[in-house]
């Protein structure tokens, strides 16, 4: 069950329900993983995301939501790309980064 007040968003992966959450730690992990320094650079980078970018972002948001998964595990899961991109965008929007909503979609 997600806590919308905390900015959590639900996503089903591999038949299991998960929570995504953009915590400060997740944001720092995303910036480091993508080599983006600051929100402006992150916005630029995510305007045309690669598959690796989506993996980095999805992994950080899952860990922000409490999952203990490594990116290697996530990479092997079957993925509904549209559902994942929508959930990523909703997670950024829930954290007050509504402008980021457009960049998370492939």
Written overview of the protein:
The protein is mainly α and 106 residues long. The chain has one domain (4-101). Helices cover 49% and strands 9% of the residues. The chain is built from five helices and two strands. It has helices at residues 24-34, 39-46, 51-64, 71-75, 81-94, and strands spanning 9-13, 16-20. A two-stranded antiparallel sheet has the order 1-2. Helix 1 (24-34) packs antiparallel against helix 3. The longest helix has 14 residues, at 51-64. The radius of gyration is 12 Å and the shape is globular. Mean pLDDT is 90; it is low at 99-104.
Quick structural overview:
The protein is mainly alpha-helical. The chain has five helices and two strands; from the N terminus they run E-E-H-H-H-H-H.
């Amino acid at each position: 069950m997600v806590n919308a007040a905390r900015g959590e968003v639900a996503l089903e992966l591999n038949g299991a329900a998960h929570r995504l959450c953009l915590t400060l730690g997740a944001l720092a992990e995303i910036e480091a993983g993508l080599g983006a320094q600051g929100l402006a650079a992150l916005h630029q980078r995510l305007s045309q995301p690669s598959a690796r970018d989506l993996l980095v972002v999805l992994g950080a948001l899952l860990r922000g939501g409490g999952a203990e998964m490594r990116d290697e595990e996530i990479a092997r899961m079957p993925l509904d790309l549209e559902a994942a991109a929508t959930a990523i965008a909703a997670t950024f929007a829930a954290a007050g980064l509504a402008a980021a909503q457009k960049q998370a979609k492939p």
